[in-house]
Structure prediction request, 829 residues.
Amino acid sequence: MSTLAQLGLGFSVALEPANLLFCFIGVFVGTFIGVLPGLGPIAAIALLLPLTFKMAPATAIIMLAGIYYGAMYGGSTTAILVNIPGEAASVVTCLDGYQMARQGRAGPALGIAALGSFIAGTFGVVGLMFFAPVLGAAALRFGPPEYFALTFLGLTLVSYLSRGSVLKALLMAIFGLLLGTIGMDPISGEERFTYGSLTLGDGLGLVPVAMGMFGIAEVLENLAKALRGEVYEKKIKGLLPNRKDWKESFWPIVRGSVVGFFIGILPGPSGAMSSFTSYAMEKRLSRHPEKFGTGAIEGVAGPESANNAATAGAFIPLLSLGIPANIVMALFVGALMIHGIQPGPLFIRNYPELFWGVVASMYVGNALLLVLNLPLIGIWVRVLKIPYAILYPLIFLFCLIGVYSLNNNVVEIFIMVIFGVIGLVLRRTGFEGAPFLLALVLGPMMESSLRQSLLISRGSFSIFFGRPVSAVLMVLGLAFLGTSLIPAFKRKREKLAAEIGD
Amino acid sequence: MHRLYKRYGIASALGLVILAVTFFLPVADGAEYPAKTIQIINPFPPGATTDLIARLLTDKLSSLLGQAVVVVNKTGGGGAVGIRAVKDAPADGYTVLVVPPPFALIPLARKGIGYAVSDFTPINFTGNNPAVMVVKSDAPWQTLEQFVADAKKNPGKFTFGTPGTGTSGHFGLELFKMETGTDLIHVPMGGEAPVAAAILGGNIHTSIIALGTVRAHLEAGTLRALAVTAKKRSRAFPDIPTVVEKGYPSIDVSPWFIFLVRANTPPAIVDKLAKAFKEVVGDKDIAAKIEKAGVTVENGGPDEAAKFLAQEHKKWSEVARVAKIGQ
Prediction:
């Protein structure tokens, strides 16, 4: 059967009234939990899982998948409006999205995020449809050495994530790598820097740290400004992206979709990695990189597209190999197993109506999300008109609830608040949070894959250069490192030379 | 502006008072158990078999006990946070713990973790999930004997993936090394799924892994099972021999699932809970769903569960001692 005929079969499943209804319920729930900071798709899906035991398997997965990609749509809302990344993937959306909101351009920022998400989500589904089996096999070629090389390449992006000095960005990255070693040693299992805290045994949670460093720090910083009423531009300039915005966002959306999809295939924190990568790429390719961080719409369009494409990519290892790339995918395994269905290499062949039904429902779901989200923009923008005396305590409260809802663990609330204070101090001294967060995302992965590789190779570093994929990534990483550092040194030398000349 | 602040101040103070009062309202005492929601604490993130089993039971448990039964994932510290939370909860039967084997292994691997298996009373030994030793389909070993012979000839050459140091996979590896006299390289991968992916990708040689995790790959022939590490052959894969048949009867590393409450919970409450669990797990429809998740249903009561836990404790204590885990 050709792909189109199978897609037809898929749509006949996805458009059954029950499936359509549950697709809507899924994306609706997803949008809302995405908007609430901290509250993520994991908690919502776990909660609704027993409900799916009585559904047909296709209906169950259609609804749960809707929650998952719906949450990615909503995740950008608080990042743009009030600088709170609801999950690690939205951290980079804060950089330019929030600046746009402060200039009265929250509407276009939210609009481009929604439209970019729609385009990327649809692109991701197309990719899933045509390449699932091939890419699943390719993902297996990523062993520990390839992961190490990839994280190394990722770290070289650090210098693109800051507006200020490269030196400060590197210092923040080192700070992130250091804090990434907190917790159980991934190889020996010994506890490091936990001082007896069981919570720290699992390492610093990304979401509490991100919410603290961006959200709480922002609230604290603005307390002073708010009394003078100067946080946001009061006049709202347009609700939707204009023509110029579109022109600037088109290629970032396309590139973000492609990059996000491929990174999404790899297990691990792919949502965050895809958005960081997209941001760095846009800044490097841009003709006016200096505008990034001051409200450049490309800095919202690219990353937001990337993390939505990544959600589609994440289905590939699950559906073609039965290997869940993250906790949400593991929940899908559970939902399928109850019906006696085991995702794996034979899944697409044995359950075509299920696979194609879910794929088709993603097209439907993405369209529903767009319809759902565009009218909401007008409401969200009005949130900024709430007096600060009410808005800030509310933000603080939502952060507290959200961070607790992650693991039902009180200690994480303290972690968030402590990082709020750290974030404030760093801001005041001209350091930025994004390089720190990228390092915190990559650090633990980098460490464990380095040590796993060396265990496998029995101590020989040649394992990183003897395998084609990892060798290419390593060389690319070294090249990036060179090109990002040399200009900085050169400038310094020129400055020095000028001073001596004087 | 000042007036505005004042008004909000009064309102929020009022809210706080209401919150505080409701918080400290006396809860009906234990005469009529259960009088409020029962929480099942799962110390691990959602998505694993443990979580699935707990969530399969809640509906029927609620209707039997006449109170809501909810699953709460209280994660952290490799499971220790949730387990300790149940230990520190009142012994009133409103906080139930559901656990896989790490429950018995954490106190062995990490001294001073703050709980012992004896701090809990088991109420239901729900079932176990047979594990298999797998290699990639193009690996040279067709049987367990071939692998063991090859590994003996090449000590320290072959890699064995586990979810991490101190996990059940690690204890299984040490037990395997003890029993077969082989020397394998331990590669902690950070989870069961990464272990499966690393074997499929040819990055590590073997592992002992839950049958449920690799089932689809055994069916598709992308992985080959050398042995089932359980006493009986699997019903789904009757062709795979067991370790008992291969002459290593003690390499039984099947993950199991047990529900417990705090020690010193009144016997009447333990009894009531145990009866309810027995009935629910014994329900034909629910048992069938649990089996579909790859788990063999045992449905043992408190005594059977306690006896089984004691055996497990003895076995793994010995492995920890010999392999010097947690020392």
